[in-house]
Amino acid sequence: EERQSFGAKESRGRSRLGLIVTGVMGGSLVALYAVAAPFVAPALRKICLPFVPATTAQVENVLNVLRARSGSLVDIGSGDGRIVIAAAKHGFKASGFELNPWLVWYSRYKAWREGVHCSTSFHISDLWKVSFGQYSNVVIFGVPQMLARELPRTAKVVACRFPFPTWVPEETAGEGIDTVWVYDAETFKSQLQQGMTRKTMPEQEDTEL
């Protein structure tokens, strides 16, 4: 009887231990999901690019190609705010637009900690619904269609990580994934207009037929 009682107690002890381990693992997974979901979820949206932080070299390349520029700067898809904050430290009035609220809140805190909160602003926004016409310097990790045709003629557009297909940049800096490409707004808008014209021509031909 004593052996049976001891065995029953041991079995109950193992059962409780198993429940505790399962609970801890489950809680850890839930916590991990809660932290990771806001960063990963945008990657699953059809109109939002996933968050991939800019490297130190990439930030330096952006600042290098804009070294002779000043005024307002916007980072479209600003992520954790590192380009906006670096630009503010170099005299730009810098803004960042980002869909992920966690990244925006972190960017605001980081700007405050770095002492540039007065010359930076971060906004939670759908990047496809924002007007960027008031900015003279634009940094973008997305697609050129985000900018429509609203930029001032004197604006410069810096594309990071991926160039705009078939477009000829006026300047390039860096190499590999750290490469940045610079386009002037006038060429940028004319190229975009040509692309839209080519896209609508087949539709017009089909209508005529």
Automatic annotation (TrEMBL):
One GO MF annotation is: protein-lysine N-methyltransferase activity
Tell me the domain of life.
Eukaryota
Main subcellular location:
mitochondrion
Kindly list the biological process annotations in GO that this record carries: methylation; positive regulation of sensory perception of pain; regulation of mitochondrial ATP synthesis coupled proton transport
- Which InterPro entries does the record cross-reference, listed alphabetically? FAM173A/B, SAM-dependent_MTases_sf
Transmembrane ranges? 17-41
Q: Which UniProt keywords apply?
A: Membrane, Methyltransferase, Mitochondrion, S-adenosyl-L-methionine, Transferase, Transmembrane, Transmembrane helix
State the GO CC annotations. mitochondrial membrane
Localized where? Mitochondrion membrane
Gene3D superfamilies assigned to the protein according to its UniProt record, in alphabetical order: Vaccinia Virus protein VP39
As for membrane topology, the entry says:
Single-pass membrane protein
> Is the keyword Amino-acid biosynthesis assigned to this protein?
no
By sequence similarity, the record places it as follows: Belongs to the ANT/ATPSC lysine N-methyltransferase family.
Name listed for the protein in its UniProt record? ATP synthase subunit C lysine N-methyltransferase
